[in-house]
Every structure is written in structure tokens, then in C-alpha cells.
Design a protein that fits this description.
Blueprint (H helix, E strand, L loop, with lengths): L6 E6 L2 H10 L3 E4 L6 E6 L2 E7 L11 E5 L3 H10 L9 E2 L4 E7 L5 E7 L14 H9 L3 E6 L5 E6 L2 E3 L2 E5 L11 H8 L2 E8 L8 E12 L3 H13 L13 E13 L6
Parallel strand pairs: 1-4, 5-8
Antiparallel strand pairs: 2-3, 3-4, 6-7, 7-8, 9-10, 9-13, 11-12, 12-15, 13-14, 14-15
């Protein structure tokens, strides 16, 4: 069964020019560069590749690559500021996306889009069982695992709130560099994350854990951000005295659940 697209590879007559174009739009390069014959950018959990082609190699209109982005209008403004010429201003489509089109220097048509409303969660109700959900909700702390684009791991304890098929984690009011937090930088580079909640007991028949895996989003503002902060304040009284309203929230969209042990034990 086909599960996903791993990468899209586009030909270019001028690698340096193409690399500068995609970097200017915010694509993160992980291999190659302006003098290479092959360059790769990370796009979420997949890749956009560029391969050098000889001048005599020509192509007609071949289709379109569609990228989902956090803010269509902000990227449109960034493209205009870089001197690029999108086909038209962002607009809302009848199929439920806001988008604009932009061709790269080699004529490949790109579409940058964002759903107008969040679709129903793909997580089936049976994926997170009642006992798993209850076990997670009884924990006061979990551990968030992230990795940067090079795969360097990072693990931190976190406070959280579970709502439907999303686990929310706030950034609390500690004397840290907000934008410099390693977990936020990692998610921006590599949104695949895992969260584990566990219970330990000297009686090993009572051990148990639940692991949630999926893609993380950083919510900086908006209704979902505000609702998540309220859930977290209700769950952790310590947060009520903190100025967290302007701080980001990590939203883990649960795609896979693994559990083990005695989940029914209240711990």
C-alpha cells in the first residue's frame, strides 16, 4: 500500500540560482548547495530535491507541487519582498484552501496553501483506547522527544493537556530565550516528535507507559492556541500565576499510539 510521498525531485539548469530561490522562501537545505549537482531540502517529513540538467534538456508544463505552509499571506509577502512574482495574490479556493502560485527560476509551478478550516482528525477513536487516555490524563508530567534536521535527539519533561487527538504543551514562564528553545527549533526543522507518559513502581507488575507519536505544530496565536492555554491553566494551577498568554503552544497531532504494562493501575 502506498503510504506517502518521500520526495519530489526537480531539474534545474542553474543550481546556484535555484538554491538561492528556495532558500529565500525559507526551505532548509540539508545536502548539496549552489555548486553541487544534487541538492536536497527538508519539507516536513519529506524532501524537495534539485538535480542539475544540461542546457539542452527542456521541459514543458509538467504539473505542480503543492506545499502546505503555516501562513500563506506571510509567505506571499516574503516572496514579493525577495523580488519574486507570484501569479496572483492569495485567495480562498472552493475546495477549502487559501493559496497562491509561484514558479521557480526553472519554470516549475509551486503552490503554497493552507486549509481554511482544520479537517477532522485522522485518528480513529479506537487508536487511543479508553485505558490509554485515562492513563495519560492521570500523569502530571510526560517527556517530549524531538530531533533536529540532522537527527540529534533532545528530551525534556513537560506539562501537558490532552484534548481529542491532540496533546498540547505550553512554554512556561521560565527565564529562557523563548525563540531559542531547543525543542521549538527542532520542531521547526523536523516536526516528527514523540511524547511518553509512564508510571514506575518498585512492584514491577505495576509498571506502564504510553507513547504518542505524530507531527507537532507550533501555535503562536489564534483560537486553538488560546483554548489550549486555558486547558493547561485548568490542569496546572501553577500556570495561572504565569504570563503565558503570549507564549507558544506545541500541538502534537497524534498519529500513532504504543502502550505497555498495567495501564489500569491508578498510580
Amino acid at each position: 500500500m502506498i503510504e506517502s510521498i518521500s520526495a519530489v525531485t526537480l531539474a534545474t539548469h542553474d543550481m546556484a540560482r535555484a538554491v538561492r530561490f528556495y532558500r529565500a522562501l525559507g526551505f532548509a537545505i540539508i545536502a548539496g548547495g549552489e555548486t553541487a549537482d544534487f541538492t536536497s531540502f527538508r519539507v516536513g517529513t519529506g524532501y524537495l530535491n534539485l538535480i542539475a540538467a544540461p542546457p539542452e534538456r527542456r521541459w514543458a508544463w509538467w504539473g505542480r507541487v503543492i506545499f502546505h505552509v503555516a501562513d500563506v499571506d506571510a509567505l506571499y509577502a516574503r516572496a514579493r519582498a525577495e523580488g519574486f512574482q507570484p501569479q496572483a495574490a492569495p485567495r480562498d479556493a472552493p475546495w477549502g484552501e487559501r493559496f497562491f502560485h509561484l514558479s521557480d527560476p526553472d519554470g516549475h509551478e509551486l503552490s503554497f496553501a493552507r486549509p481554511l478550516s482544520r479537517p477532522e482528525s485522522p485518528v480513529q477513536p479506537s487508536l487511543l483506547s479508553q485505558s490509554e487516555r485515562h492513563f495519560i490524563e492521570q500523569r502530571r508530567v510526560a517527556h517530549l522527544a524531538t530531533a533536529d534536521r540532522a537527527g540529534e535527539p533532545h528530551l525534556v519533561p513537560v506539562c501537558f493537556a490532552l484534548a481529542g487527538a491532540t496533546l498540547y504543551i505550553t512554554i512556561d514562564e521560565k527565564p529562557k530565550r523563548r525563540n531559542g528553545l531547543k525543542r521549538l527549533r527542532n520542531i521547526a526543522e523536523n516536526p516528527s516528535v514523540a511524547v511518553t507518559a509512564d508510571h514506575y513502581d518498585e512492584d514491577w507488575t505495576k509498571l506502564g507507559w504510553v507513547m504518542l507519536r505524530g507531527r507537532a505544530e507550533i501555535l503562536a496565536q489564534g483560537a486553538e492556541h488560546d483554548e489550549a492555554q486555558e486547558r493547561l491553566r485548568a490542569r496546572y494551577p501553577q500556570l495561572r500565576a504565569m504570563a503565558i498568554a503570549e507564549l507558544p503552544v506545541i500541538a502534537l497531532r497524534i498519529a500513532r499510539v504504543t502502550s505497555w504494562g498495567r495501564l489500569a493501575e491508578p498510580g
